[in-house]
Predict the structure.
Amino acid sequence: MIAVEEIKKHINIDIKIKEKRPHIYQIFAPFFHEDGDMVEMFLEQTINGTLRFCDFGLTAMKLSYYLENLNNTNKKVYNDILKENSLDEEDGNIFLETNLTNLNTNFLHFAETLSKISSLKYFDSHRQKNIFYDVLSDMIKETFQNTNVKKDYVPIKEYPENKVDYAFKGKGRDLYLFGVKDNVKALQVVTSCLEFKQMGSKHQSIVVYDDFSNLNLSKGTVSKLLRNTDKQFMDLNQFREEGQNYISEMIA
Amino acid sequence: MDNERILYIINSPKIITKQPKKKTSLINGSYRNDFEVALIADKNVKLNVHFRKNEKFSENFSIILEYNNQELQKRIILLRYNGAHGYHKNKIIDDNEFESFHIHRATNEAIKQGYNPECWAYATKDYTTFEEAATKFWQDIKIQDDIDKFFKNYKAVQLFLFNY
């Protein structure tokens, strides 16, 4: 088994090493996450004598504090980072095989790559930055407690992909409300509304944006939305102030 | 979001609004379970609780209270009970450093300066295992539901499996 002093001799920065488990050493080095916790890195000597740097799933675990799931895009980026940096992964354990000669360069490389992977937390569209759909849902639940509202309503059974976020049952016609926070959703709304009209559906449509001025919807998307929907609320604040009265009048 | 509000939310009694899963998931080398709580005083204030425990090292765990901050339009971690995973160093409020079990807490100082909201932490001797931390966390954030209803034998140290 490689001695601790031997490991320290081959790594050129000021580190501390502690045996975490038999043949597994934790390396305490000045690499920190944004939350002040040190990046967790280990040097393991495997049964057949090879050395490898590992994280034993701790990078993925920390990432899971900020990302609900690694969605397709993030998973692809995650795999690309590993591949392009010649790291491997097995059941969440990211590792890099090494030897004594290249211990220092491999260690620095390993630490850098773990930092890149950790930065994936900034790219989550579910948790960070936007809980728009949750806020909209709570607002509707609170404001329209005594109103007949259906969530994820499918007006035309033959087209289940054309879902309405919230459908309000009206005396004359129904009101279909959509929340929009990006181009993808915007175009889905356009398609759905066009197909509803083609099928002769009698309804009014409302779009509530997640801060329209900062959404960066393309000009073409905006034109299509304006042509094919009826009422726009430019952000949640406007919907909060005016939505109840508007909807109540429309369904009366 | 000021410190008074942060502490109010942390310390306010809560009930479970979405139950933990019956079986813990093992994903990418860590055991996980998640559930939702709400303040009894204001059920619109909802928080997520996340349990994480590393498969290889039982002393590496996190128990997290996460808040849907409508003002900032994002979710922030208010509280995080950490295991003795290595080293922590504060960059705000004080410059304490420690290797022991510690608790991260969101602060107004961190939020105002654009830092990770829960980057400040303090060492604790209130727990030495995941199970003790979970029990302490449950008490500290005042979840009114009985922990034993969801996590049987939770007070016993789970030597081999984080499962129930």
